[in-house]
Amino acid sequence: MDKAILKNRGLRILKQDPWICIVSFICSAVSNFNKISQNINNISEHLGEKIIFNDETFYTFPKPEVVAETSIKLLREFGLGFRSKYVLDLAVRLTDQLFNLEKLKTFNYLESRSLLESLYGIGSKIADCVLLYSLNKTESFPIDRWVARALRDGYCLEMKNSYNYASEWARNNWKENAGYAQQYLFQYQKEVNNEKT
DNA sequence: ACCCAGGAATTGT
DNA sequence: ACAATTCATGGG
User: Fold this and answer.
1) Which pLDDT tens digit goes with each residue over A82-132?
2) Would the pTM of this model clear 0.90, i.e. be above it?
3) Does residue A30 lie within 7 Å of nucleic acid chain C, judged by its CB?
């Protein structure tokens, strides 16, 4: 952690809109950055509203109600693949008010995570991302491949398949700043990897 | 053809 | 309840 902070001191944590955030991270499953942004751009360009600002064209991200009226087939054309069914299911739930993302901000970390994980296609990692990047839960510690490697190399923490053990360890160790710790470890590990290739 | 990418659901113990 | 297996997909 010392090395990680020295390299990138000043990292901040996004405070995204929960709906955009959760769709983005559903798209992130077994994917990569370029593809994820393509997915989000495709959804916006085809379903969002056009905005012209300084002669530049932008598109808003569509509300859940709009996405709920589409189809798995269309979302697949946007490149979401097997994640399409998860996004459509979520959009319908939000539209029918069977689930309220904003309300999760009022619950504590464990309650909020448990509710997120009840959604189709949302497991521990994506739930932690949504909690950290859009629901103000700074103790959340999302563990992806890179963070797992950082924990292994820097802290001899072999998590293997035990996501819960490692994430609880991180929350106990860094408390309400575990999210910031994750940011530093992730960024550091990515840079280590880039130097190797 | 092979490998990887910001995992989750399902199926065993 | 955990742990192992299957699912799933476009890009490099």
Assistant:
1) 999 999 999 999 999 999 999 999 999 999 999 999 999 999 999 999 999
2) yes
3) yes
* Protein CB footprint (7 Å) on chain C nucleotides: 2-5, 7-12
Dist CA A25 CA A122 (whole Å): 9
Q: Does residue A89 share a domain with residue A23?
A: yes
CATH number for the domain harbouring residue A39? 1.10.340.30
Whether residue A53 sits in one domain with residue A125 = yes
What's the Å distance between residue A160 CA and nucleotide B11 C1'? 19
For residue A121 the two structure tokens come to 């296609």
- Same domain (yes/no): A7, A70: no
Q: Which of A196, A111, A95 is nearest to A146 (CA)?
A: A196
Residue A160: which pLDDT band, with cuts at 50, 70 and 90?
low
User: Which CATH number fits the domain that encloses residue A192?
Assistant: 1.10.1670
Task: Provide, in whole angstroms, the distance separating residue A41's CA from nucleotide C11's C1'.
Answer: 17
